[in-house]
Amino acid sequence: MKIIGVINHKGGVAKTTTAVNLAAGLAKAGKRVLLIDLDPQGHASYGVGYDIESVTSASPSMAFVMGSDQPISDHIIDTRFPNLKLAPADVRLAEVAAMLVSRTYRESILTDALEGIEGFDYIIIDTQPTLDTLPQNALAVADRILVPTTLSTHALMGLTRIIQTINKVKRHPKEKDFDWRIVFTRVKGHGQDRQTRAREELAPVADRILKSQIRETEAVEKSQEGGDDEVIPLILQGGSNVAVKDYRALVQEVLELWPA
Questions:
Q1: What mean pLDDT comes out for the span 74-103?
Q2: What are the domain boundaries of the chain?
Q3: pLDDT at 40
Q4: How much is the pLDDT for 201?
Q5: Is residue 62 a contact partner of residue 34, using CB atoms and an 8 Å limit?
């Protein structure tokens, strides 16, 4: 089983879209997948069809797992997509995150929650756009990290902090089977010069950059909006859109790089 954390503290880098489509694509490939939503906004949950508007105090939520040490198995639900299950999040998780600041060993809560979990080939964790307690939990438990980033100067500058955080959390000698990669997102067709400069700036970690990249397209945004009745991950919508092809290529690269 591989646990992949999708992490970036910068917003607007298609992090959640990447997490959702990676999870859905792996499930479509026949892998048993659990998508864990660790962002109080719940966008990943919404992205696989979870009805955020109908959440009640009794609804399953990662808030109970992170705040009350309840078994994560009690908060895993089916989606309507074969092989894909969800541990949803909602605004209650924000309240929990605020309380966790004073808790000891707070970065290991998710690690403890996932200990002994079975029945999945991949666990994909979507995180909020910070490097606070919730993303640090994802960093601690993940054996693979995927960092989506745009080619903007600010986004690339932010990678330095992410890399430092990864190295800090994963510096323990026991972390031998660990890997991380960068994937370029929202790449514009006319931005070859910018991509060349980005690769030059990232030369020290050039071997960490995936071959796959996600091109900028309106379909990426529309895939999260859905219609009146349903939301379908972009990768499952079919068609010849370039973003669909790009996410399929990403899934294939992940399957080859991190087989499970």
A1: 94
A2: 2-257
A3: 95
A4: 80
A5: no
> What CA–CA distance (Å, rounded) separates 209 from 199?
9
Query: Which residues 6+ apart lie within 8 Å of 171 measured at CB?
Result: none
Tokens encoding 171: 């510096």
Among residues 124, 71, 118, 112, which one has the least CA distance to residue 233? 124
Cβ(8)–Cβ(39) below 8 Å:
no
Distance CA 150, CA 165 (A): 19
Mean of the pLDDT values across residues 68-90? 95
Structure tokens at 59: 């609804």
Quote the tokens at residue 74. Answer: 């009690």
Alpha-carbon distance values, 168 to 69, 109, 124, 161, 241 (Å) = 26, 18, 21, 10, 39
Residue 208: other Cβ atoms inside 10 A:
16
Structural tokens at position 223: 């895939």
Q: What is the pLDDT of residue 8?
A: 94
CA distance 68 to 62: 10
pTM score of the predicted model: 0.93
- 2-257 placed in CATH 3.40.50.300: yes
Per this entry, what is the length of the chain? 260
pLDDT value at position 79? 97
More confident residue, 11 or 18: 18
